[in-house]
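User: Teach me something about this protein's shape.
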Amino acid sequence: MTVERPSIQFFEGLYEELDDVSLRRNRSTGVRTVLMTFKKLKAIERFNSFTQRFSNAIRLQDSEGEISVEPSGVKFIFGGPEGDDLERVECQFEIDREEHWERFMRFMHRYAEANGMEYGSRGE
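Assistant: First, the predicted structure itself:
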């Protein structure tokens, strides 16, 4: 399967736009944690998508194929004057195998290049 542009989907056919990603590694266990941040989600905006197929996973697709990741946590952060405006959604998952990490990083490099994102440390 060849996908021209890397994509992220919660629901099949609804392509999400990643705003930030944070990568961490536990020094004692070696387990890596990925935190993806979305400022808005089409999946929420079109919540009447009961006809869409939801698989409890995030689908990351690129020219190499598909990665299906089940998040260990999803946080909805609200703000605004009434406290009911969605500010962002944080989706977290862990990667414990080196070959899975390498595949994820190849996806992230492709996604970043296709969407004008670049690497930067928190201090920037």
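Now, about its shape. DSSP finds two helices and eight strands in the chain. Helices lie at 42-45, 98-115. If you'd like, I can walk through any region in more detail.
User: That's plenty for now, thanks!
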